[in-house]
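Hi V.,

You were right to ask for the full record rather than a summary. Here it is.
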Amino acid sequence: MNDSFTNTGDKMVLTGATYDIGMIGLGVMGRNLALNMAEKGFSVAGYDTDPAKVKALGREAAGKPAVGVASVEALAAALRQPRAVIMLVPAGPPVDAVIDGLLPYLAPGDVLLDGGNSHFRQTEGRAARLEGHAILYMGVGISGGEAGARKGPSIMPGGPQAAYERVRPILEAVAAKVEGKPCVAWLGPSSAGDYVKMVHNGIEYAVMQAIAEVYDLMKRGLGLEDGRIGQVFDGWNRGTLPAYLIEITGRVLAKTDAATGRPLVDVIADEAAQKGTGMWTAQEAMELRAPVPAIDAAVSMRDLSDLRAQRIEAARVLAAAGPALAIGGAKNEAAFVGALEAALRASMVIIYAQGMAQLRAASDVYGYGLKLETVARIWRGGCIIRSWLLEPIRAAFSARPDLPNMLLDPVFAKMIAADQAALRSVVVAAAENGIPAPAIASCLAYLDAYRSARLPANLIQAQRDYFGAHTYRRLDREGDFHTEWE
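Predicted structure:
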């Protein structure tokens, strides 16, 4: 903690090189995280290229040990050594620009943390570059949005363990707490933190898509009003599906647009933006041969949503290619809503299973040494994908650290067995009524493929050998074989 500062809100004066941590990037996330640190008793010197954001930190931090500075040189001079600086700037070139500007003012032993959503390969390259200067570099995933940064996010640090120990007291203090334990832990060397955050975001994509499909089935299928659908999600959040994304869905659907008086969600264009982390997860899963079809479907649907003009034309041209809706009716509403609840529950289990399996594969290939129990533990609070599932996931990997897929755990096997009939009925209803539900449908397909002791890949191998002499393996003897098919 630092006592050598003056901050009255309109005047900020540095009085010594004794600040605990520097913050570069004082946008929504950076400023709120800096305020969080200051409230926990750690002194923060903040810098941003936008002077207005520096002033905003000063106003909001009045009476707290946080001040703004006019340059990266001043920021470096304000920090006690070895320095610790966290960057919260957009991923990509802005990160490299900050490093280039800051590097002349750093010294061997200083710690530099990237708290943005950087691609894990870029983190590895930056760490290697800074290693030549004896500067410790960490990729740190942070989840929780504006509220999380201010009140307690989930934090996923990777990189040199010595660097983590330098900043561990600060990160543990500002992280969310569950059962008194901070939702932060050193995850592993190199880019382990950024990789875990990437998969976190992939899971987030898939869960959001599954929720959107359930919403669509209630809105178009049952003809329910947004307010009523919001009440359903609110009930689920209070019942068997407590999860942050379920919770905010109920709130979103209850919001009225001030300009039109309509539900706000109905005046929002149906074009979902993305920053790339879901796509990275899907691409990387393919590289590892770790199937994540629900995440694949979520990314594809965001891409399809962007083809709005084409979809409007196709709705006219292909009108005859779809069936008439037949789910609706008061008689069917309660039963179908109940089936949707069970189908969404099963889908979420399968989505998390896919993400955790990808983390297992990545840890083996990249030498991260991930402890999946720890990953689940720090996701229980603060982060966007926090849900009721994470405690049983933590328990499953605690009981069996080498568990290859959480669907093999008896607790989750029982959950899926109880909900699989509803999942099947929802997929059938979506198909029969022409309502796209690719994430939910892919979850069912993944389940059925994973539990199949035999798949039709034998035919695919025979075809490959036929047209390309790619060979095949046999069930009854060792070795690679080729057949002269003609």
